[in-house]
Amino acid sequence: MAVFVYAENINGVYKKAAFEAVSYAKAVADQAGDTVTAITVNPTDSSDLLYKYGASNVINIKDEGLKNFSAKAYAQAVSEVANGNVIVFPHTTDASSIAPMLAIMNGSSLITNVLEAPESLSPFQVKRKAFSGKGFMHAKSEGAAVILTVSQNAFGVKENTVSGSEEVKNLSVANEDTKVISHEQSSGKLDLKEAEIVVSAGRGLKGPENWGMIEELANVLGAATACSKPVSDIGWRPHNEHVGQTGKAISPNLYIAVGISGAIQHLAGVNSSKTIVVINSDAEAPFFKSADYGVVGDAFQIIPALTEKIKALKG
Amino acid sequence: MKILVCISSVPDTTSKINFTADKSAFDKNGIQWVINPLDEFALTKAIKLQESQGATVTVINVGDTATEPVIRKALAIGANDGVRVNLDPKDSYSTAKEIAAVAQNGGYDLILCGKESIDYNGGSVPGMVAQLLNQPFVNASVGLDVNGNEATAVREIEGGKETISVKLPAVIAGQKGLVDEKDLIIPNMRGIMSARTKPLQVVEPTSSEVKVQGVSYDSVPPRAAVKLVAADNLDELVRLLHEEAKVI
User: Fold this and answer.
1) ipTM of the assembly?
2) Between A and B, how many CB-CB pairs are < 8 A?
């Protein structure tokens, strides 16, 4: 059972999600008694980074036509080199755009939002996230070939160095239907879905001018910032920071929610966080029922004090 | 311009999710059904294009008769007509296949969908439809303009945005931001009355091939009771996060 994995890079640099997908693929390959082949497009990073997580072969696709992302052209490129029974993708925006197109091209089954190593390889069965994090589904593939997308921060990045080799493939895939006009990457900002710690705030903060202390706490923790739906609806924070059922679903190791009451829709997006801390002045806020640790009190006093204490801990 | 909007009937966002006693299926008892919120952004965008460019908007849903109320709601919001493929869908593939079969004959310039449904969260149908129709696909779209046979879409990428021009026909999967939340249309009485007489075509499925089956379901296990820390004892919170949870 040959196992392939799509190692996503941004501007040539591998994402943490790529290492997680390779780690997952290695677990599947170990179960199957086979090896992992990673596929990547125009990387500048070294393949050593992929050997480190268990990829024995790296197929390095060189294609000027794929300089700009197109789901269809990338799916075409991956389908030209991947001929395994299992193809693993991270559940990022780009990868989860390629995977459904590839599934149709190859006639494979597609199981998205995968959380754990497979329960069985034949038939292929695996646990996945469903109902926006309010439940789990054990999904079974009806066919022999299966494409998976692995939910970010679910399986984790696991070092497992193997000796590997790289093969360069020069492709020239037609990429005519879409053209990138502009690309804005906010530099230095931690990606919310990849972040291991997320500090999030809600209407309890009373106004956008008060977000400085949230950003400072996030900064000290090396965390990303997020917000509740009402906050992005009012325009205090951008839409891309909204976590919840209709925003982003995240699974960090630590989620700190400040001034968020914990509506069921918000919980749906964050309840797969490993540890949840809730800080709220309302002792009756429903979020306390879903938290591991809670502090009842005034965020305007607690957050600056907590920031100082964490600074002290980190030295 | 002809637009096809794919809508899914999903449990209301406030629903508590339960499974049947044998865990083999989602328990539909007591559930209110709504248009998938991410599809509502796509539908509203289509209605805006209907107003600004005279587009016709057809909504399509793959579902049994129980999903007709959400199709009628979409008609009340302003869609011109609706199609229901008479199949209780079992997976993304069977859903995509039916949508593509209807789209194939419809000559649509643009197919709009939400990027995923909030029930099974497959996020697979839009890309599958695009590939089945051999059309370009833009996912996670937070902005869209149409000019003749070309669209300009803005898609969210990790840590940024990308603006893309796309040749039509194409499939665009949208999310929050495609239109503002405040611009979502709430049907008025006139819309509700006219929806009753708008055409709703029921077509039979082309096949029943399924590629993925939900074998069983689990609820999320409850967390242990919260440990409350006094507001004037944050050293204890830091200690718990550092030593007990080991997350900082």
Assistant:
1) 0.97
2) 273
**pTM tops 0.80:** yes
Confidence of residue A187 (pLDDT cuts 50, 70, 90): low
For residue A83, what pLDDT is reported? 83
pLDDT at residue A1 tops 80: no
Residues of chain B numbered 93-112 and touching chain A (CB < 8 Å): 93, 96
Which pLDDT score is estimated for A151? 97
Other Cβ atoms within 10 Å of A122 Cβ, number = 11
Interface contact A5, partner B, CB < 8 A: no
| Average pLDDT along chain A | 96
- Adjacent-strand bridge partners of A278: A257, A294
Q: Which two tokens stand for residue B89?
A: 């869908």
Smallest CA–CA distance from A105 into chain B, residue: B131
Nearest to A272, CA basis, from A151, A177, A164: A151
At B52, is the secondary structure helix, strand, or coil?
Answer: helix
Q: Check whether the bond before B136 is cis (ω within 30° of 0).
A: no
Chain A touched by B25 (CB under 8 Å):
no
* Contact call for residues A281 and A299 (beta carbons, < 8 A): yes
Would residue A33 be called left, alpha or beta, if left means φ above 0 and alpha means ψ between -120 and 50 degrees? Answer: left
